[in-house]
């Protein structure tokens, strides 16, 4: 999961509902910008199902795990570049043009993918979509926060986060809807262009962020927009508040004393407070990805097939459960993060992740040990109509697992009466698939038939439930609270890049790991990494619940600072005596 999270309480959500009902302009503005979050989530979810059918249409994709990983991960690579460009474009040209350009890139990428004649062209389309996703992920929350009333800002930005998980769920529904339609994956990927087109048109009719306009000296334009957002009796007060906020922001930027990126970075890393905060912020962002969540979000139907469900339709239908649980977990987090605390919620989440990844690893290990053997008789029976797997030697005992690991790419055709009985090992091609299915058998290309599949699905669902309320959302909250205000932009950017790069590494290696190590060993590897993350988070990430920004700085400045020690508030956090954080004792 990528994207910032603002925490809002119940009263803020009630006020949000009241204001959007009485002032529809606010609702129009936020939903128009929020489509960016929907697109972000949709792209994450849609490729997981589309990949099954891309694999069926292109033999090169079916036979190459690296090519499949590249199709998925190039959107993440594009998003890294898009996020960097988005940050620069936001300041240079404004929030509104950045969202419009992101829509154009997304729409273009969707069309390229829908009409792709080769896997290479699909990859090009994925890069375009990734650029759009990266720009939208940076810009949409910023636009919403700057163009919405302060008292409901948290609720509206949280809505953008919900639209991301809603987009993932919608993607799985649309994937299911197009499984029987000719062109399956082309529709799945191409239909994403519609909401991008809708947002493009809506953003042309919406104003620029008033805060950006004010910073650029276009104060009258900013005032006019605020008059549409706020009641008449509140407008002047809000204009004055924005003026003070912008002036304070300019002063903070000036206090850094450096204008170039390298200079600002050097200044930031020279502060003990920033180093401690940045270490905690980057660790939780990297941990969020290295516990393996995007293996589930990008490869969920493939994992279901690894669990022993051969049908594409069944795999996608069961994957819908994981997406729904992820959405529910995001909502749950909003209610518990201020009660349980950030640190505690992450640690509890990581304990659950470790346990359920171990269960998944054990389940896949049991499934591999009980995989049905390959029968020479069954193989010869079907080999008259198609091609036997080149590596198969009837004198050497083989199981389904050996068949699927064959270097020349082979598939396992299950027994006609009982899929757990010995089956045939055939070359992986359309002729083999047709021959097997014509005989009322199931053809397995990812995982083997077994009786452990439902246990794997339960483990997968429990893993999502453990991840989503804690490690899914809290790292972004920690990163919004742990940096000194004047360094928040550059530190937040570093942590976000660490998140995207970690996402890219996990996405680009998951299928290769399952082929090289086996599915069970891959999940045990993620289990080990998650346990390491649990230990590192415990010793490096402090609790920021209930602390003001100044109190967080003072906590990080303490000589006896211990991340695992709870600091309650001003009375428990000694005033900073070092001028590096720029605070004086009260």
Automatic annotation (TrEMBL):
InterPro entries: MFS_dom, MFS_sugar_transport-like, MFS_trans_sf, Myo-inositol_Transporter, Sugar/inositol_transpt, Sugar_transporter_CS. This is Major facilitator superfamily (MFS) profile domain-containing protein. The keyword Chaperone does not apply. One of its GO terms (molecular function) is myo-inositol:proton symporter activity. The chain crosses the membrane at residues 25-54, 66-86, 98-115, 121-144, 156-178, 184-206, 277-297, 317-337, 344-368, 452-478, 490-511, 523-541. It comes from the Eukaryota. It comes from Panicum virgatum (Blackwell switchgrass). One of its GO terms (cellular component) is plasma membrane. Keywords: Membrane, Transmembrane, Transmembrane helix, Transport. Pfam families: Sugar_tr. It is found in: Membrane. NCBIfam families: SP.
């Amino acid at each position: 999961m990528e994207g910032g999270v603002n925490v809002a309480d119940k009263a803020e959500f009630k006020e949000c509902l009241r204001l959007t009902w009485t002032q529809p302009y606010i609702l129009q503005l936020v939903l128009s910008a929020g489509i960016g979050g929907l697109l972000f989530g949709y792209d994450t979810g849609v490729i997981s199902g589309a990949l099954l059918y891309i694999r069926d249409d292109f033999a090169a994709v079916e036979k190459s795990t690296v090519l499949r990983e590249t199709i998925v991960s190039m959107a993440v690579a594009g998003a890294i570049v898009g996020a960097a460009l988005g940050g620069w474009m936001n300041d240079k040209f404004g929030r509104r043009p950045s969202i419009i350009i992101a829509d154009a890139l997304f729409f273009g990428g969707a069309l390229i993918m829908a009409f792709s004649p080769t896997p290479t062209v699909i990859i090009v389309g994925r890069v375009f979509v990734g650029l759009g996703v990266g720009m939208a992920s940076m810009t949409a929350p910023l636009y919403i926060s700057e163009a919405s009333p302060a008292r409901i800002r948290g609720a509206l930005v949280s809505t953008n986060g919900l639209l991301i998980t809603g987009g993932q769920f919608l993607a799985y529904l649309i994937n299911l809807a197009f499984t029987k339609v000719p062109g399956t994956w082309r529709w799945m990927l191409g239909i994403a262009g519609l909401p991008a087109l809708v947002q493009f048109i809506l953003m042309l009719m919406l104003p620029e962020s008033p805060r950006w306009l004010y910073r650029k000296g276009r104060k009258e334009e900013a005032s006019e927009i605020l008059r549409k957002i706020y009641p008449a009796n509140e407008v002047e007060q809000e204009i004055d508040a924005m003026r003070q906020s912008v002036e304070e922001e300019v002063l903070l930027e000036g206090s850094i004393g450096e204008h170039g990126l390298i200079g600002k970075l050097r200044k930031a890393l020279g502060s003990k407070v920033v180093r401690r905060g940045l270490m905690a912020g980057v660790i939780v962002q990297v941990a969020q990805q290295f516990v393996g969540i995007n293996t589930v979000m990008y490869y969920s139907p493939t994992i279901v097939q690894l669990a022993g469900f051969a049908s594409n339709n069944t795999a996608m239908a069961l994957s819908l459960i994981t997406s729904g649980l992820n959405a529910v977990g995001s909502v749950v987090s909003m209610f518990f993060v201020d009660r349980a605390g950030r640190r505690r919620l992450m640690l509890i989440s990581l304990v659950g992740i470790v346990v359920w990844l171990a269960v998944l690893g054990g389940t896949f290990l049991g499934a591999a040990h009980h995989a049905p053997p390959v029968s020479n008789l069954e193989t010869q029976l079907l080999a008259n109509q198609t091609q036997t797997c080149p590596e198969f030697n009837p004198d050497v005992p083989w199981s389904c697992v050996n068949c699927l690991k064959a270097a020349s790419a082979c598939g396992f055709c299950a027994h006609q009466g009982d899929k757990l009985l010995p089956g045939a090992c055939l070359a992986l091609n359309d002729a083999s698939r047709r021959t097997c299915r014509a005989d009322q058998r199931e053809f397995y290309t990812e995982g083997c038939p077994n009786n452990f599949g439902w246990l794997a699905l339960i483990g997968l669902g429990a893993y999502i439930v453990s991840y989503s309320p804690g490690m899914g959302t809290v790292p972004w909250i920690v990163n919004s609270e742990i940096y000194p205000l004047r360094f928040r932009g550059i530190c937040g950017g570093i942590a976000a890049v660490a998140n995207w790069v970690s996402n890219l590494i996990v996405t680009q290696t998951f299928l290769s790991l399952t082929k090289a190590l086996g599915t069970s060993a891959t999940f045990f590897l993620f289990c080990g990494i998650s346990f390491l993350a649990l230990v590192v988070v415990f010793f490096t990430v402090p609790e920021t619940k209930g602390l003001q920004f100044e109190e967080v700085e003072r906590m990080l400045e303490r000589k006896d600072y211990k991340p695992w020690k709870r600091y309650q508030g001003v009375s428990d956090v000694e005033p900073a005596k070092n001028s590096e954080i720029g605070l004086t004792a009260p």
